[in-house]
Amino acid sequence: MENDKGAKTGYPYTRMRRLRRTDALRRMVRETTLRVDDFVYPLFAAHGKGVRQEIEPLPDCYHLSVDMLAREAEEIARLGIPAVLLFGLPASKDAVGSEAYAPKGIVQEAVRAIKRAAPDLVVITDVCLCEYTDHGHCGVARDGEVDNDASLDLLARTALSHAEAGADIIAPSDMMDGRVRAIRRALDERGFAQTPIMSYAAKYASAFYGPFRVAAESAPQFGDRRGYQMNPPNAREALREMALDLEEGADILMVKPALAYLDVIARARQRFDAPIAAYNVSGEYAMLKAAARNGWLDERRATLEALTGIKRSGADIIISYHAKQVALWMKEGTA
C-alpha cells in the first residue's frame, strides 16, 4: 500500500509495536502524564482532640480532629500535594444547618488550623448544608421539598464564613440553581473578590456516593437528591449547567463522579476554556480498595490506570482519596 506521495504504509512497513518495546521508549512517547500537582486530597474534620478514626468504607482515610488535621496538612504539603478539599462533621445538626456558617464551626476552625500549619497548602472548602442539617438535604427543607431560593442565603453565608476563616477556594456542591451567583455576590461585597469558586457544576445523583455519606454522616432522612442533582443519563444538560455557572462567576468547573462520566469531562474540556476538575468519588475509591484487598487487582497499577484515564479525558484537577498514596508512589519512583 502507498499513500498519495508514494510512500509505503501499513504492515509490514508500519509497525506500531516499535515504540512499545522498552520502558524508556514508552516513556518518550507517553501522551498523558500524572503529576502530584494534579491532585486535591479530601479531608474530614471532626470535633474533639486527638481524634484519628479510620472511616470503615474508606480504608486509609480518617475523621480527624483539628489538632490532628494540622499534622496531616503538614504531611500532605511535604508530599507536594498542592491542595485539600475540606468537609466537616458538626457537633450538632438542626433544620437550617447552623454550624455550616457559624464563625467557630468545625470547617472554619479546621481552615485556620491548616493555614497555620501549612500556609502554602491551598484549602478548598465544600459549601453545602447536607452534613449540618438534621434532615440531611443540601438546602432548606419545606413540606418535604428542598426550597431552592430559600437556601441561597445560607449557602452564601457559609461561603463567606469560610473565606473569612482563610479558605483559598470556595466549592459549592449543593446543586441549587443560582448559588454560584449568590456566593460570588456575597464574596465580592465583603472584600473577597479574589477568592475563586470551584463549582460542582455537573454533580450527578450517583450511586457512588455511599461511602462518603457514611464518612460525612450526610444521608438524607427522607426521599433522595434526584430533584436537584443531575440525572445520570444526561450529558448535554451538564454543559448547560457549566455554561450557567461560568456566567454566574465560577472560576473552575467540576464533574462528579469521574470514572462513570469521562465522556462529560471530555465534552467539557472541548467546550470550555476554564479549568476542569473531576471528583474521583468515594465509591470509585472503595471499589478499587476492596478489589485490591481481596487480591483481585494490583492496587498500584489499577489506581494509576484509573487516574490516568481521568486526566486523559481532559481533567486539569483530580480530587481523589488516592492522592496521598499516589504522591508516595511518585516520591518512591514507583508511579
Task: Give a quick summary of the entry.
By secondary structure, this protein is an alpha/beta fold.
Named at the architecture level, the CATH assignment of the domain at 34-254 is Alpha-Beta Barrel
Order of helices and strands: HEEEHEHEEEHEHEHHEHEHHEH
CATH H-level homologous superfamily name of the domain at 34-254: Aldolase class I
What's the number of extended β-strand segments?
A: 12
Provide the CATH topology of the domain at 34-254: TIM Barrel
Look at the structure and give the CATH class of the domain at 34-254.
Alpha Beta
Spans of at least 5 consecutive residues whose pLDDT stays below 50 are none
Provide mean pLDDT, rounded: 95
> What helical percentage do the residues reach?
25-40%
For the report, how would you describe the main beta sheet?
Answer: 10 strands, mixed
Number of helices: 11
Q: What is the structural class?
A: alpha/beta
Strand percent estimate: 15-25%
Radius of gyration: 21 Å
Span between termini: 41 Å
Shape: globular
Describe how the helices and strands are arranged:
Layout: H1 23-28, E1 39-46, E2 52-55, E3 58-65, H2 66-79, E4 83-88, H3 106-117, E5 122-127, E6 140-142, E7 145-147, H4 148-165, E8 169-172, H5 179-189, E9 198-203, H6 210-216, H7 236-248, E10 252-256, H8 262-271, E11 276-280, H9 282-293, H10 299-312, E12 317-320, H11 323-332
Parallel strand pairs: 1-3, 1-4, 1-12, 4-5, 5-8, 9-10, 10-11, 11-12
Antiparallel strand pairs: 2-3, 6-7
Helix pairs in contact: 2-3, 3-4, 4-5, 7-8
